[in-house]
Design brief:
44% helix; alpha/beta; 295 residues; 8 strands; 10 helices; 8-stranded mixed β-sheet; globular; single chain
Length: 295
């Protein structure tokens, strides 16, 4: 059985689209499935409830509002499937995106998890849309390069599949649960695969304040994971060494200037991460704040 799990928080405007995109996926004929929505707020669950008459396999769960890691732990404890597929309530998967994830797992018994491919829906015509377009493109390039060269890759929390028995118990203070899950899959002797065909469409921040909020918890979370389990997955130095990869996405002088601004912004981001996590030792609740412009 396959459990398709959507975690959400205060996303009543987008949860129906997320559910419908999952529900219309064509799965292998013999596979039974369930769609699970886990949310802490009544507004999101109320909108999801309206779809129960259309989707009989839809199950709803209310978590305690302790954060996404706790919500994921609850979902896994309730899931009936031996394969778990995770996505979020503020994104939507593309048509025919789930089957390719399953095929990677079925064809490779030593692959424990498979990442989908995030696609930005922001307009490229402004700086933040260009940043999103470029960063998602580079992430796709890096995952494909790493697979070809037998290097480790890490799942995107926007869409990934995992064998249930490999899913680790998540500490509630985690900032980047996708990185932690991926590291634990490798720790158990399995690999992480990638399906470029499994597209998930994401709205990224459209202002600097929200951009910093989102990137602080994702990039900072990898720094947190390094301290927890000794897995060094991302740093300012490693990002800088790969700067040449960005140039293929630049078209024109204005985008070249936006690329320069991105390098400055990433430098500032790593300063903020060091300040808030290492010096001020801010809590998970203080760092994991809602990013309104992505909703």
């Amino acid at each position: 059985m396959i459990s398709l799990i959507i975690t959400a928080y205060k996303e009543p405007r987008t949860i129906a689209k997320a559910i419908k995109a999952i529900a219309k996926q064509k799965l292998p004929e013999k596979e039974k499935s369930e769609i699970m929505v886990v949310a802490a707020d009544d507004e999101t669950l109320g909108e999801a409830w309206k779809l129960r008459k259309d989707f009989k396999n839809l199950r709803l769960f209310k978590d305690e509002g302790k954060g996404k890691p706790a919500a994921l732990n609850l979902a896994v404890s309730k899931a009936k499937g031996d394969i778990l597929i995770f996505t979020d309530g503020d994104v939507h998967v593309g048509d025919y995106s789930i089957t390719p994830l399953l095929e990677v797992l079925q064809n490779n018994p030593r692959v424990g998890a498979v990442s989908g491919c995030p696609i930005s829906i922001n307009p490229r015509s402004n700086k933040y849309g260009f940043w999103a377009y470029m960063l998602t493109g580079v992430a796709n390039d890096l995952r494909k390069y790493s697979l070809r060269n037998r290097r480790r890759i890490f799942c995107s929390g926007y869409l990934f599949a995992i064998r249930k028995e490999l899913f680790p118990k998540l500490p509630e203070e985690l900032l980047s649960e996708d990185g932690y899950i991926s590291a634990k899959v490798y720790e158990q002797g399995y690999g992480v695969g990638y399906s470029e065909k499994s597209k998930v469409y994401v709205r990224y921040p459209d202002n600097f304040s929200d951009w910093i909020k989102q990137k602080k918890r994702s990039a900072g979370g990898y720094n947190q994971i390094r301290k927890m389990i000794g897995e060094n997955m991302r740093s300012f130095g490693s990002e800088s060494r790969g700067a040449f990869r960005f140039m293929k996405y630049v078209s024109g002088l204005i985008e070249l200037w936006w690329l320069f601004e991105l390098f400055v912004a990433r430098l500032y981001l790593w300063y903020v991460i060091y300040r808030d996590i290492n010096l001020k030792k801010k809590s998970h609740k203080e760092i994991w704040v809602r990013v309104e412009s992505t909703k």
